[in-house]
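User: My advisor, Dr. K., asked me to get a structural model of this assembly before our group meeting. I'm new to this, so sorry if the format is off. These are the inputs:
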Amino acid sequence: MKELIEIPARCGIAVEVPAGQSIRVVNTHGGQVVDMWAFRRDDPSEHMSMPHSVVTLGRIKPAVGDSLVSNLRRPVLRLVEDTSPGVHCMLFASCDPARYRLLGCTEYHDNCADNLRSAVAAHRIPLPYIPTPLNLFMNTKFDDHRVMRVEPPEARPGDRVTFRAEHDCIVALSACPQDLVPVNAHGCTPTAVAYAVFS
Amino acid sequence: MKELIEIPARCGIAVEVPAGQSIRVVNTHGGQVVDMWAFRRDDPSEHMSMPHSVVTLGRIKPAVGDSLVSNLRRPVLRLVEDTSPGVHCMLFASCDPARYRLLGCTEYHDNCADNLRSAVAAHRIPLPYIPTPLNLFMNTKFDDHRVMRVEPPEARPGDRVTFRAEHDCIVALSACPQDLVPVNAHGCTPTAVAYAVFS
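Assistant: The format is fine. Below is the predicted structure of the whole assembly, which you can bring to the meeting.
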């Protein structure tokens, strides 16, 4: 059974995914970016790392069958299913208070970095820094190997990705609260997503 | 006066660059990759950060005039001169012992991560993790926004880049010791480079 649990718009969660089990992330309404991190249960200083995965995979967007690796270059999560158009981003820092200040916010704005901090604190995971997330469904493109642009996600309602844990992991997810630039679709409207952990 | 100081092949250094002063990196023999990091002198936990710079700049290769920003999204180093073809890489983790083990090395191999560790230790900078470096002159390219390939650097002998410090910084440089895959030119032969700090 794959019981789907909702992550409300703008919110984050962290959940244990034992080795060999899978975590599925569903883009309930389509067009929503979800920041994803994974930490090894037995030593959270080892975590899924995008700049190491880019080197190992020779790719800046993961494909089904790819194992994303840690900062020690060991497999952490393997992408085993992707019904979306397969457009994700491995290059962007998650949004954080500094990002929203630069975008003109004078008051606190929900953000993926703080969602991660809150979510992993419940699992007693120390977080000396924010690893670069796998930005699920985020639609970044490049011109001439140089200039980058962000377009609304191509993911449709119900599109999903599934990852199998290569080790006991704590996986964190944040339904990105970005509503000032078109990272999310529906006119920059953050929406809820859902996830399930299953054998 | 710009007195050039040599960094021997496979080696690293760290040097103080006061606010307003500049650091120049010269590709003495051409075709050599140089990993670069910068830490704020007054709080080294704030450092030049590639995944944050990518978002701020909207670019995956810095252009003259660009300020690379920190993990708090504040300017750290501004690229003020680039006589090379302007091909650098902001996406790759630096080479490290795990990378060389995966490439088949059974004995210790010089690597940029350890070069950074040794170089900043002399400045008493704690290093709880290795930030993604700016891989100067590294020639990474992308196909269809997905697949990545690494080709030998296009930088010619004497090509140089110059950065002005926006704050008092410790800047670290490592002449990349990669000799197993064609990250460096001359048949994967690491060579010496040089640098100068000046007003």
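One thing worth pointing out at the meeting: Chain B has four helices and twelve strands.

User: Perfect, thanks a lot.
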